[in-house]
Design a protein that fits this description.
493 residues; binds zinc ion; 8-stranded parallel beta sheet; 20 strands; 9-stranded mixed beta sheet
Length: 493
């Protein structure tokens, strides 16, 4: 009884203390005008795709969080003058293979605050995160990848994509069991999604693919798929490829995300988009993404260039660029470099297909950026987001600014937030959201990286904050800061 009384008294005393404390705090802040934030972004045009807010506001940040959005003046220990600039949620890239410090510098300059490798992914989720923890400029995350798991289980000699058994042989029952066990383990260890590239593991049976979808469904993880077919020729068209995975999603309940729909559909991209929309209208959780370019990029030694590739893809040797030198290929150099192994750029996507996807409000923007293995690599990893905002929004008027921002902030966050609830606080300018913020000049933002000069920073992105810390200031990289954090699903074991 007395114990209860004491507890009751304590509770009452606490209420009094709070009641006293609150007026004290507000009293003291009233005396110097306002509350002080760590950082204030003042007078910018705040654009939030979730609420639809598009107005001049001041944003107050404390620690790693947005704490105030106000039309009145806010007091900050530091202030960024954003007059005339757009203040947007930091861009979330669902698809970036380059996950090294130098890639993060290029991505920060392109407005990206969260860089995710969800297509190829990893076979070792713990190690992947451990390597980047505390050392990263921007936030980072990964899927457990069917490709690297299959390579590990089947002892394929490839480094990034399969070159041997993982591409060309059916798995034995014992290998299939191991592939499923490794994928399930990755999901338990907090992988954001499951990655698949069926075109690169072409000998994987339809059964093997459906089993992976079933596992993803069990963990509420989306499957990010490079389709089995990307060609124009029956029966290996992009349409057939998308049929396989829409069926797998429908039959298992796993959410499906089709990567780079333009390089899958080529001139038939609108037909693939129609399939995605039709599946969604029938209640299947399907999303997709594209990059703003008319070329793809991959490894020359991969199964994509197995005999018959010219007819399948509707291209020939001269449409392929060797990234180490920039030269276009011939029959001879194709043979030589395919044996050597390395990255190529493939000019195969019609501009009309690219533009259709970029302008479509349903289709997210993701870079598919590549590791920096040559001086003539694809520019997409360095410049995708500023190219959409500068070239397609401002110069071409293919879509409006808010729609474009939604496709690179809110939509990718929503794609992942059921599996990884931390994404509910990303992709938004909202009180309580993570202070991942990109401030840019809408009149000046533009990509500078090209196929000839791919290692150039984008322009017009003035400030980039990651968890409240500036990584780009006045258009320049900030040295020696590592505010990037793991973007990861809850660990279930
Ligand atoms: Zn791909």
């Amino acid at each position: 009884m007395s114990h209860l009384l004491i507890r009751g008294w304590r509770k009452w005393a606490a209420v009094v203390l709070i009641a006293v404390a609150v007026p004290l705090i507000s009293g003291s802040s009233a005396s110097n005008g306002t509350e002080t934030y760590d950082l204030v972004i003042a007078n910018g045009r705040v654009m939030d795709p979730e609420s639809g807010l598009d107005a001049v506001r001041n944003v107050g940040i404390r620690g790693a969080k947005i704490m105030a959005i106000s039309s009145s003046r806010l007091e900050g220990k530091q202030t960024i003058d954003a007059q005339g600039l757009v203040v947007a949620p930091g861009f979330i890239d669902l698809h970036e293979h380059g996950q090294e410090p130098r890639n993060y510098q290029f991505q920060a300059h392109d407005g990206v605050t969260t860089s995710l490798e969800l297509e190829v992914g990893t076979a070792d989720v713990d190690q992947w995160y451990a390597r980047r923890e505390g050392k990263s400029l921007i936030n980072f995350g990964v899927s457990v990848g069917h490709i690297p798991v299959r390579m590990k289980v089947m002892k394929d000699a490839g480094t990034f994509l399969p070159v041997g058994d993982a591409a060309r042989r059916q798995a034995t029952p014992a290998e299939l069991q191991q592939i499923n066990d490794d994928i399930e383990n990755g999901l338990r260890r907090g992988a954001l999604a499951v990655g698949m590239g069926i075109n690169y593991t072409a000998a994987a049976t339809h059964d093997e693919i459906v089993d992976v979808f079933r596992l993803a469904a069990k963990y509420g993880a989306s499957v990010h798929v490079h389709l089995r077919h990307a060609g124009l020729q029956e029966p290996t068209t992009g349409l057939v490829g998308i049929e396989e995975v829409i069926a797998a999603a429908a039959a298992t309940g796993a959410p499906l995300h089709v990567v780079h729909i333009t390089s899958m559909g080529l001139k038939n991209t609108p037909r693939l988009i129609t399939m995605v929309k039709g599946a969604r209208a029938s209640g299947i959780d399907v999303t997709t993404e594209c990059y703003p370019y008319t070329a793809g990029s991959t490894q020359l030694e991969s199964a994509i260039f197995d005999p018959g590739w010219q007819d399948r893809q509707g291209i020939t040797f001269k449409d392929i660029q060797w990234t180490k030198t920039g030269e276009r290929l011939t029959a001879e150099s194709f043979e030589k470099y395919r044996k050597e192994g390395g990255t190529v750029v493939i000019f195969s996507i019609p501009e009309e297909a690219a533009r259709t996807a970029i302008a479509d409000p349903l289709i997210m923007i993701a870079s598919d950026g590549m590791p920096l293995t040559g001086t003539k690599i694809h520019p997409r990893g360095q410049a995708t987001f500023s190219r959409v905002l500068g070239h397609y929004v401002r110069e071409e008027r293919a879509l409006d600014l808010m729609t474009a921002l939604r496709k690179m902030t809110l939509m990718p966050a929503q794609r992942l937030e059921k599996r990884a609830p931390m994404f509910k606080d990303k992709g938004r300018i909202r009180v309580g959201a993570d202070a991942d913020i990109t401030v840019f000049d809408a009149d000046r933002i533009i990509d500078k990286a090209t196929y000839e000069e791919p290692l150039r920073y984008s322009e017009g992105i003035q400030f980039v904050l990651v968890n409240g810390v500036a990584v780009v200031k006045d258009g320049q990289l900030v040295d020696g800061v590592f505010p990037g954090r793991a973007a990861r699903a809850p660990i279930s074991q």
